[in-house]
Amino acid sequence: MSTLLIRGGRVVDPSTGKDGVANVFVRDGAIVSVGDKAPKASETFDARGLVVCPGLIDMHVHLREPGKEEEETIASGSAAAIAGGFTSVAAMPNTEPACDSEAQVEFTLLQGRRANLANVYPIGAVSKGRKGEELAEIGQMVRGGAVAFSDDGSPVHNAALMRLALEYAAMFDRCVIQHSEDPNLFGCGCMHEGKVSVELGLEGIPAAAEESMIARDIILAKLTGGHLHAAHISTRGSAEQIRRGKAEGVRVTAEVTPHHFTLNDDRVRSYDPVYKMNPPLREGPDVQAMIDGLRDGTIDVIACDHAPHATEEKELEFNEAPFGVIGLETTLGLVLTFLVQPGHISLSRAIETMTVNPARILRIPRGTLQPGAAADVTIFDPKKTWTVDSSEFRSRSRNCPFDGWKLKGRAEAVVVAGRLLPCR
Amino acid sequence: MPRTRARAAAAKPAETPSPAWSSRHLLGLQELSGDEIRLLLRQAAAYRELAVTNARKSALLKGRLVVTMFVEPSTRTKVSFNLAARRLGADTLDFAAGSSSLSKGETLVDTALNIEAMAIDILVVRHPASGAPELLARQVASAVVNAGDGAHEHPTQGLLDADTILQHKGRIDGLRVAIVGDILHSRVARSNVWALTKLGAEVWACGPATLVPDELRDFGVRISHDFDAILPSLDVVNMLRIQHERIKGPPMFPSIREYARLFGFNAARLRKAKKDVLVMHPGPLNRGVEITPEVADGPRSAILDQVSNGLAVRMAVLHRAAGFAPFATGDAS
Questions:
Q1: Is the pTM value of this prediction over 0.95?
Q2: CATH domain A56-362 topology
Q3: DSSP per-residue string spanning A189-235
Q4: Domain boundaries A3-51+374-422, corresponding CATH code
Q5: Residue spans in chain A of domains classed CATH 2.30.40.10
Q6: What separation in angstroms does the CA of A32 have from each of A4, A27, A119, A179?
Q7: Nearest-neighbour CA in chain A from B328: distance (Å)
Q8: A275-316: per-residue pLDDT in tens?
Q9: Catalytic residues of A
């Protein structure tokens, strides 16, 4: 019988509303108690001065396996998750081939278990081959362990197919995660359309490409009663549509990435493809709208859209380079430094967006320290000042726009199903 | 081959040999002050006589190697840079992109580092990707001169356009200048906007709403979609070609016929313009589309002067790129 006592930390658990100094006692992979009691344990972790919260969940990562193992594998991505304080990740299905069958869902789960670090949850493709033409075997994939469905990397462009997906996935109580982008409005764009794109002579992606798809999908969610989760929203208009949809009672949730609440399109003036992501970095007021949306509950989740790319691919001309940046190892520091410390959102709210909220959206029994729950715990030092050094990342890729940034707040250790793992 | 990162880091930014020039690179006109643009134009004026003669050559760049790397078709700009380099006594080498490693999957930066390993002084780059010269300038030790990058900038064209206006009008400050046509995809338009606004002109952008981004107002540019309405008050009209090669989605206007009727510069329009209006075009011309032969070849046209002035301007830019102080005639200071 293995037992673990995490002593004296500030326990913040938004799922129960708890925020105070307490001991967390774990036995055989499950939470036993959170309170004053300090039972004898086979292992003890001194968490005085640290924050102890449910294990963080990133519901939007790309682990590239199978297909691009030189950029990331399920094992290296899991290691990056642990280093960043995340005990669970949900892997997007845009691998090569796409994760669109029960067998591939099970492969992802198997590789996650072999890595034996973070919990890896597969997201299945909405359509066969992510081609956007016909539904993939959603029911089979649910049986195999898929937690949600998405063609992320591409939108489900066909409105009729999106309607079917929402209706069909709802039958299994699963959400459809939409990469909201109208491909015609997107065109050959490579950055946000606005003053900076005009100045740089780079083809722009209008905010309307994202907003028009979100507007359509909210209407479809209303029609079907299905659960729409809007991945990585990035504009004021998108936040406004989600806000209105929620007010009307539509089952819609939304997430934002750390780069969309910290960076704006001015960065692209360097023509450095490390600032090339999709959706693109938007304007200052959009960045503010992301922060406001997190504060007022419009945006439910912070997820990093971890998108590893090989250095030689990312060092091309701006319009030629692929979209995407990695984030698992910087998210927590960015959230604490740029959202919590300036007082934009409370610590409890920040933790909520990375624990209980994604757990509810993915219908996974995680994100809580309630007795009986799986013992996934993140322990972080909110005062630890550190400098991001991408050369030290566990990820196989280095495409991080925050390299060299000074952040305050860093994960020290995590517990995954009762097992204590150091973050460094 | 391994990237020579340490060396690249040490090389940026290019050393400034004289307080008068801000850099040896010329990546765009946006980052230049009005004073530096004026200084470049004065340097060009100093070369004007030498630029248009084959009888004499300067020896200023003797022993220097200027490489022109054109990863996009060009006739006049490449010829102009080569000639400008030769008239300053430099050796020139044309790096033909079609036959190079660029077509074998090598990255632009690797190619440039390889060329540079053969000890070149100035790299003149034309590239279809906006920002490519900037990417190179960060990685190589040579001075990089932008000969046109994507829809971003074409700084020597911007300078020679300003030079041509100055030559014909004696001033730029206070003039009303319109750039007419496909502004969205035009690097010439952007370089013109930066140069002319910094030199005090009132700059207008005119063309179909789909090809004239509204954001130009943020840069002090006035916008019109009615050529006839603004034409009578214009001192200079710079006509642009439609950049069909950069339009990837559906066509951005219904037909050439309609475009020509709304925005083409023809004889009837010329009669409504000021008597001393100056007509310019960066070339290549699409006769019958944005400009008719009577206007292009007529008395108000400065189109061929632009080409001649391009030589003096590019000599000035190479002078600066080689690290010589303004108006220096001998060894590098």
A1: no
A2: TIM Barrel (3.20.20)
A3: --EESSHHHHHHT--EE-HHHHHHHHHHHHHHHHHH---EEE-S--S
A4: 2.30.40.10
A5: 3-51+374-422
A6: 10, 6, 20, 39
A7: 33
A8: 999 999 999 999 999 999 999 999 999 999 999 999 888 888
A9: 305
